[in-house]
C-alpha cells in the first residue's frame, strides 16, 4: 500500500470516527438535562407566584394551580435524577476510600478525589434546590386551594334579599330596563352579523352544518345503536359482556352524537359568517351543554334500559325503569337550559340582580325535579311493599328509604336557604345533589360493566382463559381468580376517581383530582422504602414471574432431569421438594428486592421475629425442621410400609410439614413430621423390601416330628409367594404339656404380601394335616386351684 493510500484511509477513518462522535457529543448528560428541567420548573413557579400578586378569576386560578403542580412534578423528577447521579458520585468516592494519614497519594488520585468532591457539592446543592422548589410549589398550590375555598365560602355565606321580600322584586324592576337594553344590544349584534353573512351569499356552510347535525342526532345515532347491538350479538362472548358493552356503547353514542351535532351546527354558522364574535362564548357553551346533557341522558338510558329490559345491566323492574325514564330526560333538559342561560347572561353582561334572579329560577326548577323524583321513588317503594318483598329486597328498600329521607332533608334545607336569601348556598346544594346522583349512577354502571367484562373475559372456559390455560399452562382457578382481582382493582380505581370528582362543583377540578392521584401514585415512605401502587404492582409482577419460573423449573426437574438419573422415587421426591422450596425462597427474595428490601433488611426482620417464631410458631417450626431431617436422612421414604402407634400403612407423600400415610382401608393418615422424628416408628421396608410370615402350632408328643416338619416345608415350597432365598425353616420350639411346639418361618417379597401368603400356607397346612390324621393345635393351658395354708395363729390352733 502506498503512502498516499495510507493517508487516504487514515483520513476516511478519522471522518467516520468524527461522525460517530458527533451524536454522542450532541447528547445531553443526565445532570445537564435535570438541571435544565429544574431551571424551567423554577421559572414556571416564579411566573405563578407573580400572577397570584394580581386579582385572578376562577378559571385563571385553576390554570395557575395546574402550572404549579406541573412545576412541582418537574422539580421532584429533576431532584430524583440528580439524587441518582449523587449516589453514583458517592459510590465512586467510596471506591477510592478515605485518605490514609501519613501516606502520600498519587497526583491522579488526588485530582480525581478533588473533582469528585466538587461534583458532589454541586449535585447536593442542586438536589436541595429541587426539594426547595417542590416545597414552594406545594405552598403555592395550598394558597390557591385556600383562596378557592374562601371564595366558595363567601359565595355560600353571601346573603341577598329574600325572594319573598319586596326589596328583591323592586331590585328586579329597577334593573330590568338596563338589562333589557343589554340583552337587546347583544341580540342585535348577533342579528346584524346574520344579515351581513346572508348578504355575502347563500349560507351553504350553515345549511350543511344543520343537516349534518340533524343526521347525527337522528338517523346516525339510531343506526350506530343498532349496529353496535348487531355486532355484540354476533361476536361478543356471553350475555353479560354483550349487555355491558352495549351500555358503554349507548353512553358513548349518546354523548358524542349530540356534541358532534352541536359542533357541526356552530361550525356551519362560522363558515357562513353568521356568528358574531360576541356570540362565540355562547356557541361554545352550546357545544358543552349538548355534550353534558347528552351524557346525562345516555347514562340514564343505559342505566334504565326502559325499552330493552333484556339488555339491562342493573336489577330494576320494568315499572321502575319506566317511571324513572322521564327523570333522566328532565335532568338532561334542565342541565342544557342552565348551561345556556348562564352562558347567555355572561355574554350579554347582565346585572348581578338578573344573575341572582336566574339563579332563583334554576334553584326552583332543581327543587321541583328532585322533589318529583323522590315522590316517584316513594310511590314505587309503596307499590313494591304492597306486593310483598323478600328479606333482601326489604334490606335494599330500607337503604333506599334512608337515602330518600336524607335527600328530603337536603331539599328542605335548600328551600329554606332560598327563602331566607342564601342563594349561593341553595344553588350549590342542589347542584351538588344532582352532580352526586349523576356520579353515583355513572360509577355504579361502570362498576357493573367492569365486573361483567373482567370476570367474563378472564374465565377458565372463555377464549382468553383457554389460551392462558393451554398456551401458558395456567390453571383454571388462577384464571378465574385473576378475573376477580382485576375487577376489584379496576372498580377500586373507579371509586377513587369518582371520589375525586365529587368535589368538582365546589371548585376542586381535574387538577385537584390529578394531584390526589399523583400523590397516591407517589405513595408513602416507610423505613426508607417507598410504598406506592407502582411498587406494589412491580412486586406482584416480579413475584408472579418468579413463581412462574419456579413452576417451570420444578416441572423440568421432575419430568426431564430426574427421570434420566438412577435415583429412586423417594430421592427424587426429596430433591424436588428441597429444590422447590429453595426456588420459592429465591423468588420471594427477588420480589422483596424489587421493593428495595435487601438481604440485610430481611435478616433484620427474621432476627426480630425469631422470638415470636420460637414461642408462637414452635410446633410449625419443629415440624418444618423435622421435615428437612426426613428429606435429608431419609429414614422414611415414599413407598415404605411403616407403623405409627397402632396405625400401619404406606407412605404416600412427605412434605416439610407433615407426612401422608395411606392405611389399609384406603384412608389417609396425616402425621406431623415431629412425630416421626421424636417417637418410635416401625419401618418394615427400611432394611429391605422382604416380609416374613410366622406360624405357631403344636402336635401330640406321639406324632412323628420329622413327618410334620416335611409337611410344613412342602407346604412352603408349593406356595408361589414364599421365597426360596432365604429358604423357609420349620423349627421345634419346645415340648410342653405333652405336645411338640413348632415355630415355622418363611419370607415373601414384600411385607404387604405376608397376610395373603400366611393365609394360603395355613389353608394348605390344615388340609394336609387332616389328610395325615395329625391333630393340629396349640399348647393347652392348664389352670390349677392352689389351696393356701391357714395363716399363723388361726383359731383352730388356738
Figure out the total of helices. 22
Spans with pLDDT under 50 lasting ≥5 residues?
1-26, 509-514, 792-798
Largest sheet: 5 strands, antiparallel
Tell me the number of strands. Answer: 10
Number of domains: 6
- What is the residue-averaged pLDDT? 80
Please bin the fraction of helical residues: over 70%
Oligomer: single chain
**% residues in beta strands:** 5-15%
Question: Could you please describe the fold and organization of this structure?
Answer:
It comes from Sphingomonas kyungheensis. Belongs to the MscS (TC 1.A.23) family. InterPro entries: DUF3772, LSM_dom_sf, MscS-like_channel, MscS_beta-dom_sf, MscS_channel_2nd, MscS_channel_C_sf, MscS_channel_TM-2. It holds the Pfam family DUF3772. Keywords: Cell membrane, Membrane, Signal, Transmembrane, Transmembrane helix. There is one protein chain. This protein is an alpha+beta fold and 798 residues long. The chain has six domains: 17-157, Orthogonal Bundle (Helix Hairpins); 167-457, no CATH class; 458-524, no CATH class; 532-616, Helix Hairpins (Orthogonal Bundle), CATH 1.10.287; 638-683, SH3 type barrels; 691-772, Alpha-Beta Plaits. It contains 22 helices and ten strands. It has helices spanning 3-26, 30-51, 58-96, 107-157, 166-199, 204-235, 239-271, 280-304, 318-348, 352-387, 391-420, 423-457, 463-472, 476-501, 510-522, 533-561, 569-594, 599-616, 618-633, 673-678, 705-718, 754-772, and strands at 524-526, 529-531, 641-644, 647-654, 658-663, 668-672, 682-683, 691-700, 729-736, 739-748. The strands form three sheets. The protein has a five-stranded antiparallel β-sheet with strand order 6-5-4-3-7. Strands 8-10-9 form a three-stranded antiparallel β-sheet. A hairpin with a 3-residue loop joins strand 4 (647-654) and strand 5. The chain is elongated, with a radius of gyration of 45 Å. Mean pLDDT is 80; it is low at 1-26, 509-514 and 792-798.
Amino acid at each position: 500500500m502506498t503512502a498516499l493510500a495510507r493517508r487516504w484511509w487514515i483520513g476516511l477513518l478519522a471522518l467516520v470516527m468524527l461522525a460517530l462522535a458527533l451524536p454522542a457529543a450532541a447528547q445531553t448528560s443526565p445532570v445537564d438535562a435535570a438541571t435544565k428541567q429544574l431551571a424551567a420548573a423554577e421559572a414556571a413557579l416564579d411566573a405563578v407566584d407573580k400572577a397570584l400578586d394580581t386579582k385572578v378569576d376562577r378559571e385563571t386560578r385553576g390554570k395557575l394551580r395546574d402550572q404549579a403542580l406541573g412545576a412541582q412534578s418537574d422539580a421532584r423528577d429533576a431532584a430524583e435524577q440528580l439524587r441518582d447521579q449523587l449516589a453514583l458520585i458517592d459510590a465512586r468516592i467510596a471506591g477510592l476510600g478515605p485518605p490514609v494519614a501519613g501516606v502520600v497519594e498519587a497526583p491522579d488520585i488526588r485530582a480525581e478525589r478533588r473533582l469528585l468532591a466538587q461534583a458532589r457539592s454541586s449535585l447536593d446543592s442542586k438536589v436541595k434546590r429541587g426539594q426547595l422548589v417542590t416545597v414552594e410549589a406545594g405552598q403555592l398550590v395550598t394558597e390557591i386551594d385556600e383562596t378557592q375555598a374562601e371564595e366558595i365560602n363567601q359565595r355560600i355565606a353571601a346573603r341577598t334579599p329574600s325572594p319573598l321580600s319586596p326589596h328583591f322584586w323592586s331590585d328586579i324592576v329597577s334593573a330590568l330596563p338596563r338589562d333589557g337594553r343589554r340583552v337587546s344590544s347583544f341580540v342585535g349584534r348577533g342579528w346584524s352579523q346574520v344579515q351581513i353573512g346572508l348578504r355575502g351569499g347563500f349560507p351553504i356552510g350553515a345549511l350543511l352544518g344543520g343537516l349534518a347535525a340533524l343526521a347525527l342526532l337522528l338517523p346516525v345515532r339510531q343506526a350506530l345503536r343498532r349496529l353496535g347491538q348487531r355486532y355484540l350479538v354476533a361476536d361478543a362472548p356471553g350475555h353479560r359482556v354483550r349487555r355491558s358493552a352495549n351500555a358503554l356503547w349507548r353512553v358513548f353514542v349518546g354523548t358524542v352524537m349530540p356534541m358532534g351535532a352541536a359542533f357541526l351546527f356552530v361550525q356551519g354558522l362560522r363558515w357562513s359568517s353568521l356568528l358574531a364574535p360576541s356570540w362565540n362564548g355562547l356557541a361554545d357553551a352550546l357545544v358543552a351543554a349538548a355534550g353534558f346533557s347528552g351524557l346525562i341522558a345516555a347514562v340514564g338510558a343505559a342505566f334504565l334500559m326502559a325499552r330493552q329490559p333484556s339488555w339491562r345491566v342493573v336489577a330494576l323492574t320494568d315499572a321502575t325503569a319506566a317511571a324513572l325514564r322521564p327523570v333522566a330526560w328532565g335532568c338532561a333538559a334542565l342541565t342544557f337550559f342552565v348551561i345556556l342561560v348562564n352562558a347567555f347572561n355572561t355574554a350579554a353582561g347582565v346585572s348581578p340582580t338578573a344573575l341572582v334572579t336566574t339563579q332563583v329560577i334554576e334553584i326552583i326548577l332543581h327543587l321541583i325535579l328532585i322533589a318529583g323524583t323522590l315522590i316517584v321513588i316513594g310511590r314505587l317503594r309503596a307499590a313494591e311493599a304492597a306486593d310483598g318483598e323478600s328479606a333482601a329486597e326489604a334490606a335494599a328498600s330500607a337503604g333506599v328509604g334512608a337515602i330518600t329521607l336524607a335527600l328530603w332533608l337536603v331539599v328542605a334545607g335548600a328551600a329554606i336557604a332560598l327563602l331566607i336569601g342564601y342563594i349561593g348556598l341553595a344553588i350549590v346544594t342542589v347542584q351538588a345533589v344532582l352532580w352526586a346522583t349523576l356520579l353515583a349512577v355513572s360509577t355504579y354502571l361502570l362498576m357493573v360493566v367492569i365486573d361483567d367484562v373482567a370476570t367474563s373475559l378472564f374465565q377458565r372456559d372463555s377464549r382468553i382463559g383457554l389460551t392462558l390455560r393451554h398456551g401458558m399452562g395456567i390453571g383454571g382457578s388462577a384464571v378465574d381468580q385473576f378475573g376477580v382481582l382485576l375487577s376489584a382493582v379496576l372498580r377500586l380505581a373507579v371509586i377513587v376517581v369518582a371520589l375525586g370528582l365529587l368535589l368538582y362543583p365546589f371548585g376542586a377540578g381535574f387538577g385537584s383530582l390529578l394531584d390526589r392521584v399523583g400523590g397516591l401514585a407517589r405513595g408513602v415512605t416507610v423505613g426508607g422504602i417507598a410504598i406506592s401502587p407502582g411498587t406494589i404492582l412491580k412486586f406482584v409482577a416480579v413475584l408472579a414471574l418468579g413463581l412462574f419460573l419456579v413452576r417451570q423449573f420444578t416441572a423440568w426437574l421432575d419430568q426431564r432431569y430426574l427421570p434420566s438419573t438412577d435415583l429412586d422415587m423417594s430421592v427424587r421426591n426429596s430433591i424436588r421438594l428441597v429444590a422447590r422450596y429453595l426456588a420459592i425462597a429465591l423468588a420471594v427474595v427477588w420480589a422483596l428486592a424489587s421493593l428495595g428490601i435487601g438481604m440485610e433488611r430481611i435478616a433484620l426482620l427474621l432476627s426480630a421475629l425469631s422470638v415470636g417464631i420460637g414461642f408462637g410458631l414452635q410446633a410449625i417450626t419443629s415440624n418444618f425442621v423435622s421435615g428437612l431431617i426426613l428429606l435429608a436422612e431419609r429414614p422414611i421414604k415414599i413407598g415404605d410400609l411403616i407403623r405409627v402407634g397402632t396405625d400401619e400403612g404406606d407412605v404416600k407423600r412427605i412434605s416439610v410439614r407433615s407426612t401422608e400415610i395411606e392405611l389399609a382401608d384406603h384412608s389417609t393418615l396425616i402425621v406431623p413430621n415431629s412425630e416421626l422424628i421424636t417417637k418410635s416408628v416401625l419401618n418394615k421396608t427400611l432394611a429391605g423390601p422382604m416380609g416374613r410370615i410366622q406360624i405357631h402350632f403344636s402336635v401330640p408328643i406321639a406324632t412323628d416330628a420329622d413327618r410334620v416338619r416335611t409337611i410344613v416345608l412342602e407346604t412352603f415350597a408349593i406356595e408361589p409367594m414364599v421365597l426360596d432365598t432365604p429358604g423357609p425353616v420349620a423349627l421345634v420350639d419346645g415340648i410342653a404339656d405333652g405336645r411338640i411346639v413348632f415355630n415355622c418361618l418363611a419370607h415373601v417379597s414384600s411385607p404387604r404380601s405376608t397376610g395373603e401368603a400366611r393365609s394360603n400356607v395355613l389353608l394348605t397346612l390344615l388340609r394336609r394335616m387332616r389328610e395325615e390324621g395329625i391333630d393340629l393345635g396349640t399348647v393347652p393351658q392348664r389352670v390349677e386351684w392352689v389351696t393356701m395354708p391357714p395363716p399363723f395363729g388361726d383359731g383352730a390352733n388356738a
